[in-house]
Amino acid sequence: MKSIAALQTAVTAAAFDAEPSDAELDAIEQEMPLILAEVDLLDTQIMTIDRPATVLDERRIRRARNRVMAERRNLTNRAGVALAGGAA
After folding, report:
1. Rounded average pLDDT over 49-70
2. Residue 44: how many CB atoms within 10 A of its CB?
3. Cβ atoms of 34 and 67 closer than 8 Å
4. Of 1, 10, 40, 67, which is least surrounded by CB within 10 A?
């Protein structure tokens, strides 16, 4: 049987050595509160994987979810103001 691996073109892209642009870094910085809130939520969920959740654990998860929702709302509101030019 003939191998087809040598007949195929490379699928992966060339190595990318460039640093993130200033616009990409600004976008990451604007989203950082949401990223941190999601990490906190993940941490609280991981704590309860191998044991039953206590009342305190449920409270921690609920608070972490509320923080994520609040940060999503804040990020969406900031994006809406930026797109509207602040004339809302």
Report:
1. 96
2. 19
3. no
4. 1
8-to-62, 73, 77, 82 alpha-carbon distances in Å: 51, 47, 48, 46
At which residue do the structure tokens 């699928």 appear? 11
Residue pair 47/39 in contact (Cβ under 8 Å)? The answer is no
Distance CA 79, CA 71 (A): 12
Token pair for residue 58? 């449920």
Other CB atoms closer than 10 Å to residue 37's CB: what's the count? 20
Band (pLDDT 50/70/90 cuts) for residue 24 is very high
